[in-house]
Each structure stands twice: as structure tokens, then as C-alpha cells.
């Protein structure tokens, strides 16, 4: 059966999965024959095309919750922006009178992010090449490898120990959100954190901001919230101590999270947030 161009593109995306052998072999071949700068330009065009498509199927289901949480004129923060999928949605929701701060510490990804923001004309988004953390200074990030040998830049993360395992590592600038907002008088309405197991550190570096503005906080849940001693459990305890409660979104409504429930993202909200839903 012949496919039309749209069906062909969707089929290509389904098979071009990060860990498929075909994908890894293709990427490895391309990397050996295409110069780095040419490859970077191809990546910029590819991700810009995805962003322009702006299709919900390319996003997490939780992105559907954003219109209920963010209004025109708001100030939103995107921690772990990658190439700009969330930043684009946030930009549209806050409008010309609002502002979005996007943080992406991986240099190559940051270059794609800034190119995407320019290509989309998102003038209300400011991009920063920082890893948000619990202190200011420098940090080391590493790039994990897939089983087949390809590198997963999407999953690049901060590491504290110096391990000799052959993974690619690089230095980045780390900042506390509180430091960056020290002279800011604009209320922060929303913070999304996708920091690859560094979410607790991001929260510790934003305590003044959270106490002052009590924004909605969306956190990617890599781990078990209920596991005693885990970073995610500690994060939930810190936020609950500030008056927050964890909620999950089912694609249509928010529900107060109960022990044992698992979700890709949790939304931590205070009473005035839930009253407004």
C-alpha cells in the first residue's frame, strides 16, 4: 500500500527511535562522512521543522495542562529546555507581554535551541547556557551511551564523581535560580524542571524564589517518589514543606497524587493554584 507524504513521515519517525539498530547504524555512518558543522546545520533544520509542526503527538501528554496553569503576561521558566518544545508552548501562552527563561547547558543543544528560537521568532524567550543547581560555579556533565553504542545527548546529566568509563564529559556553568532572580521583581508563575536526576539540586537553588512567588512547579519524576531516602522523595518533602501538594494530570484533569501512583511528571501546586483550576 502506498503512503502519502504525511504517512511516510510519521512512519519514518516511528522507526527512527533512539535505540533501534537501524537508527544507530545510520547515525554512526552519517557522523563519519558528514562534517560537524554541516551535521549541526542539518540538526537545526530538522528540529525547527518539528517545532513548526507543533504537533501534540511529539509532546508529553502533560503539555496539555499548560493552558490551565499559565496566562497571558506570565513569567515562566523552562529548566532543561532541550531544543525548545516546552519553551515554544510557554512562549505562546504568556504572549507578547509575558516572558520565558529557558535553560539548556549542553553546548550543542543550546546552539540548536537558540537557532530554533530565532527561526520561530520567539522574542519573548531568553535562553541561558546554564545548568541550574544548588550552587554557583562549574559542573561536569556526561553523555550516556545506548546499548548499541550511540550517544544519548537528550539524557546528558551532571555527575559528581570522576569515572573512567569512556563516556564523553564536558564542563558547564552552574547557577542557582535564586542568584539569577536576585534583582527580579516580576512574579514567577511557572517552573518546569527536567534536569536528568538533578531536580532536587535545582529546587535547593530556588528556595527563595519558591517562598516568594509560589509558582506551579512541574517536575519530571525519574525514580520513585515514595522511596525513602531517594532524591525524588526528598524533593517532594521540601516542596510539601513550602505548602505545595503533588498532582498528576491525566490528559483532561488534575488529581491529587496518592502513594503508589506513578506519572512521568508531577505538578506541585498550592491552594491558590487548585482553587483557580
What does this structure look like?
The chain has a domain at 56-136 and 168-276: Vaccinia Virus protein VP39 (Rossmann fold, 3-Layer(aba) Sandwich), CATH 3.40.50. The chain is built from 11 helices and 12 strands. Helices cover 38% and strands 21% of the residues. With 277 residues, the protein is an alpha/beta fold. The longest helix has 18 residues, at 36-53. Helix 3 (36-53) packs across helix 6 (107-120). Residues 4-18 have low confidence and may be disordered. The N and C termini lie far apart (47 Å). It has an 8-stranded mixed beta sheet. It has a 4-stranded mixed beta sheet with strand order 4-7-5-6.
The largest pleated sheet is described as: 8 strands, mixed
- CATH level-four homologous superfamily name of the domain at 56-136 and 168-276: Vaccinia Virus protein VP39
The tally of beta strands, per DSSP, is 12
CATH topology tier name of the domain at 56-136 and 168-276: Rossmann fold
Q: Can you count the helices?
A: 11
Helix content bin: 25-40%
**Topology order in helix (H) and strand (E) letters:** HHHHEHEHEEEEEHEHHEHEEEH
Amino acid at each position: 500500500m502506498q503512503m502519502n507524504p504525511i504517512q511516510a513521515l510519521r512512519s519514518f519517525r516511528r522507526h527512527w527511535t533512539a535505540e533501534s539498530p537501524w537508527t544507530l547504524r545510520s547515525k554512526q555512518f552519517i557522523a563519519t562522512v558528514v562534517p560537524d558543522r554541516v551535521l549541526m546545520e542539518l540538526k537545526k533544520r530538522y528540529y525547527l521543522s518539528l517545532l513548526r509542526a507543533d504537533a501534540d503527538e511529539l509532546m508529553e501528554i502533560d503539555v496539555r495542562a499548560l493552558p490551565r496553569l499559565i496566562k497571558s503576561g506570565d513569567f515562566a521558566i523552562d529548566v532543561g529546555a532541550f531544543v525548545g518544545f516546552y519553551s515554544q508552548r510557554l512562549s505562546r501562552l504568556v504572549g507578547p507581554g509575558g516572558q520565558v527563561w529557558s535553560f539548556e547547558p549542553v553546548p550543542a543543544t543550546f546552539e540548536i535551541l537558540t537557532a530554533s528560537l530565532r527561526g520561530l521568532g520567539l522574542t519573548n524567550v531568553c535562553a541561558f547556557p546554564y545548568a541550574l543547581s544548588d550552587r554557583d560555579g562549574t559542573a561536569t556533565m556526561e553523555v550516556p551511551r545506548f546499548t548499541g553504542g550511540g550517544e544519548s545527548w537528550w539524557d546528558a546529566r551532571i555527575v559528581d564523581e570522576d569515572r573512567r568509563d569512556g563516556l564523553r564529559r564536558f564542563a558547564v556553568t552552574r547557577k542557582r535560580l535564586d542568584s539569577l532572580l536576585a534583582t527580579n521583581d516580576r512574579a514567577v508563575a511557572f517552573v518546569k524542571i527536567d534536569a536528568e536526576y538533578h531536580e532536587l539540586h535545582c529546587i535547593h537553588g530556588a528556595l527563595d524564589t519558591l517562598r516568594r512567588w509560589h509558582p506551579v512547579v512541574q517536575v519530571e519524576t525519574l525514580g520513585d517518589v515514595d522511596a525513602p531516602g531517594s532524591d525524588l522523595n526528598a524533593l517532594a518533602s521540601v516542596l510539601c514543606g513550602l505548602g505545595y501538594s503533588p498532582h498528576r494530570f491525566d490528559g483532561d484533569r488534575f488529581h491529587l497524587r496518592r502513594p503508589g501512583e506513578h506519572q512521568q511528571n508531577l505538578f506541585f501546586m498550592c491552594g491558590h493554584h487548585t482553587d483557580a483550576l
